[in-house]
């Protein structure tokens, strides 16, 4: 991580955040432009960019469209090391700490390390915890890892705590893109009480109400991907609700 990382400072500023996630495989260039315009208007903290599997080779083109159409920092959320683009502002260096797949814990990082070092990206070490959100997702399949069962709050808490002790700077609790259920409020509350790191929640959040419930349970950052692909207006609606409700500081 950069010394005085502006990206990390923003994660730590105590404000509840909403972050749209752009999976470049699922957008057209017109859709990407819409996300950029709405994100700028909504004043979102970041845009996350990446996916479990990218087949269309549009990553750089779409990243440039985002950069040209908004001033929001773009943070890579990569499914693998082929998604590293130095044109972004930062990267969540994800270690899949809920899994027992050595490649996702350290192997891919070894391969990526020299590329990351040369990139100048702001690198944020992130403990990534996959939770069962009611159906198998691309991330569970592609990472060859078993999600933590939906109701096993204790396993999720100990995993987050171990991630914190290992030096991760963020914890990202994810049910995977398109999950039927987002992580439970009880799991979010307990993890929030267990660790001091900023807590990101994603996977299966589709409505303003769900985002509010998750913020109130203790999430610092709510991430929405699928639902904004279908309805980019939701970016404005979720951002408005965040401001209107004067959510408590995280
Ligand atoms: C997936 O957390 C993200 O990794 C977002 O999930 O696409 O279901 O919003 P959704």
Distance between the termini: 22 Å
Helix content: 40-55%
Q: So what's the CATH class?
A: Alpha Beta
Average pLDDT over all residues = 95
- Low-pLDDT segments, ≥5 res: none
Summing up helix and strand content along with how strands pair, one would put the structural category as alpha/beta
Give the overall shape, derived from the CA principal axes.
Answer: globular
How do the strands line up in the largest sheet? 1-2-3-4-5-6-7-8
The count of domains is 1
The name of the CATH superfamily reads FMN-linked oxidoreductases
Q: What order do the helices and strands follow?
A: HEHEHEEHEHHEHEHEHH
For this structure, the CATH topology is TIM Barrel
Helical element count? 10
CATH architecture label name: Alpha-Beta Barrel
The description of the largest β-sheet is: 8 strands, parallel, barrel
Ligands bound, unique: SN-glycerol-1-phosphate
Q: Care to count the β-strands?
A: 8
Radius of gyration: 16 Å
> In percent terms, what proportion of residues is strand?
15-25%
């Amino acid at each position: 991580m950069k010394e005085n990382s502006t990206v990390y400072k923003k994660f730590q500023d105590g404000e509840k955040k909403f972050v749209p996630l752009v999976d470049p495989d699922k957008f057209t260039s017109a859709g990407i432009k819409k996300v950029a315009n709405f994100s700028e208007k909504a004043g979102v903290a970041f845009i996350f960019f990446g996916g479990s599997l990218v087949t269309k080779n549009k990553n750089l083109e779409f990243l440039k469209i985002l950069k040209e159409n908004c001033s929001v920092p773009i943070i890579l959320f990569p499914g693998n090391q082929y998604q590293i683009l130095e044109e972004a502002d930062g990267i969540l260096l994800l270690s899949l700490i809920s899994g027992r797949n050595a490649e996702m814990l350290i192997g891919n990082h070894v391969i990526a390390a020299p590329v990351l070092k040369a990139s100048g990206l702001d690198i944020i070490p992130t403990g990534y915890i996959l939770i069962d959100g009611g159906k198998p997702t691309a991330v569970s399949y592609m990472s060859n890892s078993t999600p933590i069962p939906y109701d096993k709050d204790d396993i999720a808490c100990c995993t987050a705590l171990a991630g914190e002790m290992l030096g991760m700077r963020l914890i990202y609790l994810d049910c995977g893109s398109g999950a039927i259920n987002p992580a439970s409020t009880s799991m979010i509350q307990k993890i929030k009480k267990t660790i001091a790191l900023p807590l990101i929640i994603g996977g299966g959040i589709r409505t303003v109400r769900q985002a509010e419930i998750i913020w109130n349970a203790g999430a610092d950052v709510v991430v929405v991907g699928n639902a904004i692909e279908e309805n980019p207006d939701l970016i404005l609606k979720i951002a408005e609700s965040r401001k209107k409700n004067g959510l408590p500081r995280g």
